[in-house]
Amino acid sequence: MRQRIRLFTLSLALILVVLLLSLTPNVRCETEEEKAIALLREVYSKLAEAEMAGADIRDASQQLNKALTLIKSIDENPQDKEKLLQEALTIMRDVDSMIPTLIDEGRRAAFLRNINTALTISSIASLIVLSYIFTPRIFWSLWLKARRNWLIKIVADKGGRVKNDRRRS
Amino acid sequence: MIDDEVKAVIMAIVIVAGALSIAQIAMSGKVSEPFSALGLLGPNMKIGDYPKTVLVNQTIRLYLYIDNHEGRTMYYIIYAKLGDKLTEISENKSADAPILYAYEVILPHGMNTTIPVSLRFSKPMTNARLIFEMWIYDSETHTPRYYGRWNQLWLNITATTIS
Fold first, then answer.
1. Closest to B136 (Cα-Cα) out of B101, B114, B104, B92
2. Which of A60, A134, A147, B53 has its Cα between 20 and 30 A from that of B40?
3. B56-67, pLDDT tens digit by residue?
C-alpha cells in the first residue's frame, strides 16, 4: 500500500514537472511578444506627442509599422521568433532615439511655417491697400493714354444746350 | 477722378479676394473633416466575390482596406470576431463575441493599406457573422479604444463531408 502511494506521488510529481516544462516556453514567448508590443506602443505614444509638437513622423511611423509587422509575423514563423523580436527591438530603439531630433526639426519647421504664413498674410493685406490706392490711378492713366490722340468736340443740341455735360464749371 | 461707387466696388472685390486668400493660407495643411475608413474586400481584392459557405477548417482569404484621413498618424487595431445574428454591434458598442485575430497597423495621415486576412473556423455554424471592428490605440490614455467603424460578412460554416 505504502509503495503504491509512493508510486502515485512520484508519477504525479513527474506529470507536474513535464507539464511545467512544456508550458514554460509558451508563457515566455507570449510575454516577450506582449512586452515588445507594449514597448512599441510606448514608442508610438512618444511619436504621437512629437507629431503634435510639429514633427514630421511619416518615416519614423513607417519604420515602427515595420517593427509591428515583424512582431505580428512571429505567429506565422515561430521558429524565427528570436531573430524577428531582435530585429523589431532594434527598429524600435532606432525610432525612439530619433524622436528628440524629430521634435527639434518639427519646432524649427513650425516656426518657419508661422513666419511664412505671417509674411504671406501681410503681403496680401498690403496688396489690398495698394490696389485700393493705385487701381483707380492706373486705370485712369491707362484710359487717358489710350485716348491721348482723340479730339474732343462738344456737341450741342438745336437749342444750344449741351446734354450730359459733366465738365466742372 | 473716380466715382465713389466704383471705388466701393473695387474695394469690395479686393477685400473679398484678400479674405479668401488669407482663409486658404490659414486652412492649408489642416484636415477639415477627419475620418478613417475600413473596408472588407473579397479574395480578388475587390468589393465582391465574398465567400458565403465555408467548410470547417477551410482557410478563407479576404483583405482589409484601411484608410487614414485623420490628419495625424494612427495606430489601428482591427479585431476579427465571430458572432451570430444575435450579436449586437453599433458605432458606440463593440460586439461581445470571441476575438479570432487582431490585425495591427500604424498608418500616417493620407495613407492607406490592404492587409491580407486568412481565417479558419473550427466549428460548424449557421448564420455566422464574421465581424471586423476598428479600434485605435489611444496615445493619451495608453489603451485601445473602439473607434466605431465595423464590417461584417455573413457565413454558413458547414462540417466537412466525407465522400
1. B104
2. A60
3. 999 999 999 999
The DSSP code sequence of B18-79 is HHHHHHHHHHTT--SS-EEEEEEE-TTSSS----SEEETT--EEEEEEEEEESSS-EEEEEE
Q: In which band, very low, low, confident or very high, does the pLDDT at A37 lie, cut at 50, 70 and 90? A: very high
| A125 vs B contacts (CB less than 8 Å) | 18, 22
Residue B83 near residue B131 (C-beta atoms within 8 A): yes
The answer to whether the CB atoms of A44 and B106 lie below 8 A apart is yes
Residue A8 pLDDT > 80? no
Residue A22 pLDDT class (50, 70, 90 cuts):
low
Residue matched to cell numbers 506565422: A76
Contact B114, A72 (CB under 8 A): no
**B window 49-68, beta carbon within 8 A of A:** none
Q: Which residue has the cell 466537412?
A: B160
Task: Please answer yes or no on whether A124 and B22 come within 8 Å at the CB atom.
Answer: yes
Exposed, middle or buried by CB within 10 Å (0-12, 13-18, 19+), for A54?
Answer: middle
Q: A12-28: buried (b, 16+ CB within 10 Å) or exposed (e) per residue?
A: eeeeeeeeeeeeeeeee
* Inter-helix orientation angle A58-72/A2-52, to 10°: 160
DSSP single-letter state for residue A78: G
**Lowest mean pLDDT, pick from A80-84, B24-28, B45-49, B98-102:** B24-28
| Residue A135 to residue B137, Cβ atoms within 8 A | no
Interval B129-163: pLDDT, tens = 999 999 999 999 999 999 999 999 999 999 876 55
Query: A38: nearest CA in chain B?
Result: B142
Q: Is B37 on the interface with A (CB under 8 A)?
A: no
Of A45, A121, A140, the CB nearest to B22: A121
B22 contacts A57? CB cut-off 8 A: no
pLDDT mean across residues, chain B? 89
